Amino acid sequence: MAPRAKRPQTLLLRRRGSLTLPAELRRKYRLEEGEPLTLLDLGGVFVLAPRTPLVPKLAGELERLREEAGLNVEDLLAGLKEQRKRLYRERYGSSSDPEAP
Questions:
Q1: What is the pLDDT of residue 98?
Q2: Which alpha helices (DSSP H) does 29-99 contain, by range?
């Protein structure tokens, strides 16, 4: 079943063409000042959608999670090396990996 649409909201077009999106929507979709949006004109019906560059958003989220966990870059690299060794052993056995202990 499709999600039920909420009541339409009225936006006011300001003198210089600015619109203000309701705070509830900005919070829900994590929209911040200066973020690009895509406007599509479908014969007089406007569709406005966030155009978020995915890589910078993901990088920011990873950085936030790293800081929350109290990890530094060296911790991540050490963990990466250990995970690589474990994965290699699981797939190929440990005798062929030159870095295996």
A1: 52
A2: 54-69, 73-92
Q: Are 49 and 38 in contact (CB under 8 A)?
A: yes
| Same domain (yes/no): 88, 58 | yes
In a domain, 28, yes or no: yes
pLDDT confidence band for 4 (50 / 70 / 90) = low
Specify the DSSP class assigned to residue 50.
E
Domain that holds residue 62: 54-92
| End-to-end CA separation in angstroms for the chain | 53
Query: Which of these, 73, 94, 95, 75, lies nearest to 85 by C-alpha position?
Result: 94
Residue 27 sits in a domain whose CATH number is 2.10.260
The whole model's pTM is what?
Answer: 0.44
Does residue 45 lie within any of the structural domains? yes
